[in-house]
Amino acid sequence: MDVHTIEGSVGMSDVEKAHAADLQTQGPHDVSYLKYWVDEAQGKIFCLVDAPDAESAATVHREAHGLVADEIYQVSEGA
Length: 79
Fold this sequence. Notes:
The chain is of the alpha+beta class.
């Protein structure tokens, strides 16, 4: 799970475009951006990604749109 903090607010349409760019870029990196959540007022974006490592996930964001996450957490799915 990665977390982006954008100064000020963030628009859902901008996040949708960035996610679409991730989907177009992810294949060669063995990465799968699965889902995202947005807190528009607080400028927070949370991305659920399946990746071999944090650097691969960051590389996709960097190549797709340049908005690299501020934090990346390895998470496990619960019940």
